[in-house]
Amino acid sequence: MTAHLYWDEVWRTDSGRTDWSRPHPWVVDEAARLRALGAKDVLDLGCGVGRHALFFAEQGFIGSATDRSPEAVRVGRAESARRGLDLAFEVADFTELPYADDSFDYILAFNVVYHNDEPGLARVLAEIRRVLRPGGVYQCTMLSKRNGEYGRGNEVSPNTFCQPDAPDDKVHPHLYADAADLLRLHDGFRLVGATDAEHARPGSFHWHCVFELPGERTPGTNHGPFAPRAWK
């Protein structure tokens, strides 16, 4: 995963940070369901400048956030301090998360884990399964094969493309998936729901996915009632 090299430069500019300063409505909506579940400990994985981590902390969740970009973490920490929030930011590789097993009720990975190939994604998901508690929720976006960028550039690994002349992070690997790929790649998770949603630009289709980790909440880790439930 090398896309953080591009984003570390983006986060150094006011315009780059502004474009990623507000939490996405889909994530905001999920917070209400997490509260109903009794979730407390949340992790924003690949947090960027912290828009979602800051939101969850302001909603009363116990928040942690990681990113490989030192600049993103610096900006997130500064904004957290400015708002008077108790929020832990760490520079960390997604394949070596600095947390104990079964640390979180909920993990968010928004526009991040697809900066990868399939074997790399498998390593990231193994770490997510390790630090997510049984019955926990994993919310993520994945690039859709309906995305207009799918197939452009060089296929460096199955379903993974780089565009050597791109002006943005697409010079780094991007992994694309269809519905069957989502199920295949997320072995060990239970799919709750997935929507192939168009983002701001025409043709910018991303999967919006919610998964659960099978099992019941491990005794002794409770901050309150938290167990799998039927989602609507």
Explain this structure to me?
38% of the residues are buried. The protein is 29% helix and 27% strand. It is an alpha/beta fold and 232 residues long. Strands 1, 2, 3, 4, 5, 6, 7, 8, 9 and 10 form a 10-stranded mixed sheet that branches. It starts with a helix and ends in a 20-residue tail after the last strand.
Which percent band covers the strand fraction?
A: 25-35%
User: Kindly state the mean pLDDT as a whole number?
Assistant: 89
User: What string gives the helices and strands in order?
Assistant: HHHEHEHEEHEEEEHEE
Mind telling me the C-alpha Rg? 17 Å
Q: What does the main sheet amount to?
A: 10 strands, mixed
Rough outline: globular
Which features would summarize this protein structure in a list?
single chain; disordered C terminus; 10-stranded mixed β-sheet; 7 helices; alpha/beta; 232 residues
